[in-house]
Amino acid sequence: MNISVIGTGYVGLVTGTCLAELGMNVLCMDSNPQKVHLLQQHIIPIYEPELDVLVKKNHEAARLQFTDDMKKCVEHGEVLFIAVNTPTGADGTSDLHNVFQAAEEIAEHMQQYRVIVTKSTVPVGTGQQIKQKLQHALEARNRQVAFDVVSNPEFLREGCAVRDFMQPERIVIGVEGERAQECMTAVYLQQSRQGIPILWSNLETAEMIKYASNTYLAVKISFINEIAHICELCSADVRMVAHAMGMDRRIGPDFLRPGPGFGGSCLPKDTRAFISIGKSLGYTPQIAQATLQVNESQPQRMVSKILHTLQAPADKVISVLGLAFKAGTDDIRDTPALPILQQLLTQGAVIRTYDPQAMENMKQLLSSPRITYCPDAYSACNGSDCILIVTEWPEFAALDFTVLRRQVRTPVCIDLRNILNPEDVQQAGFSYEGLGVIG
Ligand code: UGA
Fold first, then answer.
1. For residues 311 and 229, what is the distance between their CA atoms, to the nearest angstrom?
2. Taking CA 35 as the corner, what is the angle to CA 33 and CA 41, rounded to the nearest 5 degrees?
3. 18 is an active site residue
4. Contact indicator for 319, 380 with CB cutoff of 8 Å
5. Of 141, 74, 151, which is closest to residue 114 (Cα–Cα)?
6. Which atom of ligand 1 is nearest to the CA of 218?
7. How do the pLDDT tens digits run along the chain, 439 residues long?
8. Of 28, 73, 231, 266, which is the active-site residue?
9. What are residue 298's phi and psi, to 5 degrees?
10. What is the SS3 string spanning 284-312?
11. Beta-carbon contacts of residue 283 (< 8 Å; ≥ 6 apart)
C-alpha cells in the first residue's frame, strides 16, 4: 500500500519509518529541502533510539523515500498522513496554520480518492474543519474528487518512539465512512493481527482521546509532585507512597515519579490546549488548570530547595547533571532544567553541566561566562559544592560517589529524580536530598 506522510518532525518521521518497516511503500514529504537531503543520506535531525537504523534499512530497501515535492506526495499516497507541528499560541490555543496549509495543498494536487489522516495533535473539531476546507478548495477549483478525513492520534513517547509505534497499547482511529475504514484497516492490518486493539470512533472522540490521555498523564505527575512536597513536610517517604498507590490496579504504578516538573513538546502544550478547548466550549477545566499551576511552580520549588541547602549560592559551584526534559532524548523543549539554571545563575552560582545528548541544544539557548558545558558527568563534578540531578539518565544512577567524593569541594547531592540510592551516596560521605524522601 502507498502511504505519504507530510512533515518529518518527531511524529512524521517515526510514523513514516515504522509504516515502511511494516511493509508499506512510504513517501515522506518535508517543505525543507535541506532536511530532505540529509534524510536521503540517513542523517536524522533528532536523537531517537533505533530510528536511524530503521531509516537506513527501509530507505535502502526502497520502501521509504523522501521528497520536498507536495505534488509527488499527494500522487503517491492513497493514505496521506498530516504530521506537521501545531505550535501553541500565547493564549494556549493550537496554531493550526500548518495543518490547514497542508490540507489546502493536498486539495491543489488531489486527482483521485484520498484518505487524509491527522497524526498531529489537533483540537476537537479540527477534522471537520479540514473536511470543509478541502471541500471548499476543491469547489474553488471546480473539481470533484472523493476523499475522507480520519483522526489517528499518536501516543508515542520520545526516547522509545519506535517501540511505542510498533507495539502500541491501542490504535485509535476516528473515521466517517466505510471506504476510509477499509483503507485504515489495511494500514494497521499487521498490528491488528498481532492482537493490538483498534478502537474505531467518530472524529471528535478520537481527537478528544488524545487530549484526555495527555492531560491525565500531566495530572498524575503534578499530583505526585504535590504528594512529594507534602511528604517532605511530614517525614513520609514518597517512594513508598507511590509504590503502594501503584499496586492498586485502579491507580497503576506509572507516571508516579516525582520530579522537577513535566516538560517536552506535548504534556505542557496539550494541557494548555485542553484548557483552551474547554473554555472555547464554555467550560474551564479546573483540574487541568491546577495541574499546570503546580507544574509551573515546580522549578521554583526546586530552586528554593537548592538554596535552602546551599544557603548562600553566590560563587558556589553547582554541577547540573541533565538538561533534557527527560532521559533518552536530546529535546529541551519546556525542560525544567532551563528555568532552574536561569534562576541559579541569577543567584550568582557557577554552573558546571553535562547531559549525554542535550548539550548542543542547550548551548544554543543558554550561554554565560558562569556556565561550563563539560564532556562527561565526572568532569562536571570537579570542584563541586552541590551535585544536582535534573534528568533521570541511567548513567547518573550508576555514578560512583566514592570517586566523586575525591573530586568535589563540598559533598552535597540533591537528586530531583530520586534515581540514586540514598544509602550509597551517604556512605560515600555525601549529604543526600531527594524529593519527598526521608534523608
Ligand atoms: C507524552 C506522552 O507520554 C505520549 O503518550 C504522547 O504520545 C506524547 O506525549 C505526545 O503527545 O506526542 P513525551 O512528551 O515523549 O510523551 O514524554 P513523557 O514520557 O510523557 O514525559 C513527559 C514529562 O513528564 C517529562 O518531563 C518526564 O520527565 C515527566 N515525568 C514523567 C515525570 O516527571 N514523572 C513521571 O512519572 C513520568
1. 20
2. 105
3. no
4. yes
5. 74
6. 24
7. 999 999 999 999 999 999 999 999 999 999 999 999 999 999 998 889 999 999 999 999 999 999 999 999 999 999 999 999 988 877 778 899 999 999 999 999 999 999 999 998 999 999 999 999 999 999 999 999 999 999 999 999 988 999 999 999 999 999 999 999 999 999 999 999 999 999 999 999 999 999 999 999 999 999 999 999 999 999 999 999 999 999 999 999 999 999 999 999 999 999 999 999 999 999 999 999 999 999 999 999 999 999 999 988 999 999 999 999 999 999 999 999 999 999 999 999 999 999 999 999 999 999 999 999 999 999 999 999 999 999 999 999 999 999 999 999 999 999 999 999 999 999 999 999 999 998 6
8. 266
9. -65, -45
10. CCHHHHHHHHHHHHHHHHHHHHHHHHHCC
11. none
Residue matched to cell numbers 520549588: 301
Which residue lies with its CA nearest to atom 10 of ligand 1? Answer: 266
Whether ligand 1 lies within 6 angstroms of the CB of 325 is answered as yes
User: Does any ligand 1 atom lie closer than 6 A to the CB of residue 158?
Assistant: yes
Which residue's entry shows cell 545528548?
A: 357
Q: Hey, how many other C-beta atoms are within 10 angstroms of the C-beta on 111?
A: 10
Decide: 12 in ligand 1 pocket, CB within 6 A: no
Hey, which of 121, 167, 267 would you mutate to test ligand 1's pocket, going by the most ligand atoms within 8 Å of its Cβ? 267
d(CA 292, CA 289): 5
Q: Coil, helix or strand for 64?
A: strand
* Cell 530497501 sits on residue: 61
> Can you tell me which atom of ligand 1 is nearest the CA of 11?
12
The strands making up 317-321's β-sheet, listed across from edge to edge, are: 371-373, 350-354, 317-321, 386-389, 412-415, 431-433
The closest residue, in CA terms, to atom 28 on ligand 1 is 326
Q: How far lies 310's CA from each of 164, 339, 414, 424, in Å? A: 41, 18, 10, 21
The residue with cell 485542553 is 274
Using alpha carbons only, what angle is made at residue 91 by residues 30 and 207, rounded to the nearest 5 degrees?
Answer: 55
- With cell 511505542, the residue in question is 164
- The pTM of the full predicted model, rounded to 2 decimals, is 0.94
Residue tagged 549560592 (cell numbers): 313
Measured CA to CA, the distance from residue 136 to residue 250 in angstroms comes to 47
Closest ligand 1 atom to the C-alpha of 263?
26
Which backbone phi and psi does 325 adopt, to 5 degrees?
A: -70, -20
Q: Supply angle C-alpha 51, 57, 61, rounded to 5.
A: 140
Quickly tell me which residue has 481527537 as its cell.
207
Rounded to whole angstroms, the Cα distance separating 392 from 263 reads: 13
Beta bridge partners of 433: 414
